[in-house]
Structure formats: structure tokens, C-alpha cells
Amino acid sequence: MKDLERRIQHLLETIYGEDQAASCWKEIQRHVAAHLEMLPEPRRFDPMNDTSWRAFSEADAVLITYGDQFFDKGRKPLSALADFLDTWLEGLVNTVHILPFYPYTSDDGFSVTDYWQVNPELGDWADISRLGRNYRLMFDGVINHISRSSEWFRRYVAGDPDFLEYFIEMDPKTDLSMTVRPRTLPLLTEVETSRGARHVWSTFSDDQIDLNY
User: Fold this and answer.
1) Among 2-6, 178-182, 189-193, whose mean pLDDT is lowest?
2) Residue 56: CB partners within 8 Å, gap ≥ 6?
3) What's the rounded Cα separation, in Å, for the pair 71 and 122?
4) Whose CA is closest to 86, among 32, 130, 34?
5) Four-residue CA torsion sign, 106, 110, 111, 113
6) Rounded to whole angstroms, what are the CA distances from 125 to 78, 80, 116, 159?
7) pLDDT level of residue 40 (50, 70, 90 thresholds)
8) Residue 155 φ then ψ, to 5°
9) Which residues have CB under 8 Å from 2's CB, separation 6+?
10) Which of 31, 50, 82, 93 is the 20 to 30 A CA-CA neighbour of 200?
């Protein structure tokens, strides 16, 4: 068994116990195999079998940047970022962490409308692939909430049964006074849905509706 598999199974056993760890591991493998087929070529990455994979160490240098941090007249920012890295930071930086580059409605990219797209103002997937040819890449998943303008939330509001449990409904009379968070906006957001008024959990803002896990 590979080192990574042993580490994952050890963590599963620690969290869930030996009895459930084996079934959890099989389910993880099934999901990884299914989603690998959805990743764009040529940077398809299989963490279970890719021998080039390794953990971070003190030898790594990571550049963390917004997708629009670099500009060049007449070009998209992600393309300008790649040129800047290749021209000035080759051999000095080996990993690039790009903060959310998806289409969004607020919060500097953290209120995502579509996880499958690159914000066209920044570039496209070809620009991301180009960066991935020379650098290890990291992205923010932003999976704790999603924009209220997203298709997922629109379908929830419309009463689509496949999306009714995507968000956390809460009785506004519930005592939430012990909830601690780095915001002063209301914790619940009232929305009109096909089923009438509903209050949904929104930790950060009324534009960022928490996803229900």
C-alpha cells in the first residue's frame, strides 16, 4: 500500500474507527475515480497513483495571488501572471496559489456563482493549464457557501426538489446568540421562495448562502 493510502486510512480509522474506515476508504476511491474523468487535460492528477506527488516542505516557495494581481495592456490578467512568473520568478517560486478565479458577485471572488468556469475578465482554463505546466497549483475551493445568484440557489428558490436541501433553513425564532463569527451582519437571510418565505443560514453576508453538508 502506498504511503498516501496508509496516511488516509490511518486518519479515517482515527476519526471513524476501524469498522467504518474500510467502507469510507472505498467510497473515497469511488468518488476520486469518478471525478478524475471530469478534470481537463493535460493536467489530470491522480493523487493515488501519480508518483510525482509529494507533500510540501521547507524547500517550497509559494506565491499566493488574486487572479487580477498582474496587468498588461490588451491581455487578460492570468496570462500576464504566467509571463511575470516565467520572466522574473523562474527557479524562485515553484507553487502558485490563485485565490478564487471563478465568476462571482461579491467579496473579492469568494461569492462564487459557478465552480466550473474561469471569470472571463481574468482569462480561461487554457491560462490555468499554462500555469500548471511550470508550477504546482493551489486553488481556493470556497465550498462553505455560494452566491445567491448561482444556479444552485436559484433552483432552491424555485422549489427544485433536487436542491431543497442544499441550504440550511432555520426558524428565525431560534436562539443563535451563542454563535461567534467574524461578521456583524444578520446570521439568517430571509428569501422568498416558491414555498413562501424561508430563512437561510448566511455566515458572511446575504449574498453568500451557506451550503448544507
Assistant:
1) 2-6
2) 62, 95
3) 10
4) 130
5) positive
6) 10, 14, 10, 32
7) low
8) -75, -30
9) 48
10) 31
pTM for this predicted structure: 0.74
CA–CA separation, 75 vs 11, rounded Å?
45
CB-based contact 113:176 (threshold 8 Å): no
Instruction: Please report, as a single letter, which amino acid is at residue 175.
Output: D
Output helix, strand, coil percentages for the chain, rounded to the nearest 5.
30, 15, 50
**In the block, which residue shows the cell 474523468?**
37
Residues 6+ away with beta carbon under 8 Å from 146:
111, 112, 113, 152, 153, 208, 209, 211
pLDDT (tens digit per residue) in 96-126: 999 999 999 999 999 999 999 999 999 999 9
Instruction: Please provide residue 25's backbone torsions phi and psi, each rounded to the nearest 5 degrees.
Output: -65, -40
| Amino acid at the residue 18 | E
- The whole-angstrom separation of Cα 185 and Cα 153 is 20
User: DSSP letters of 21-70?
Assistant: HHHHHHHHHHHHHHHHTTSPSS----TTT-TT-----TT--EEEE-TTS-
Question: Helix H segments across the chain?
Answer: 3-16, 18-36, 77-88, 125-134, 151-157
- Other C-beta atoms closer than 10 Å to the C-beta of 52 total 6
- Chain CA centroid to CA 86, Å: 26
In the prediction, which pLDDT does 204 show?
A: 95
Backbone angles phi, psi at 27, to 5 degrees: -70, -40
Q: Is 112 helix (H, G, I), strand (E, B) or coil?
A: strand
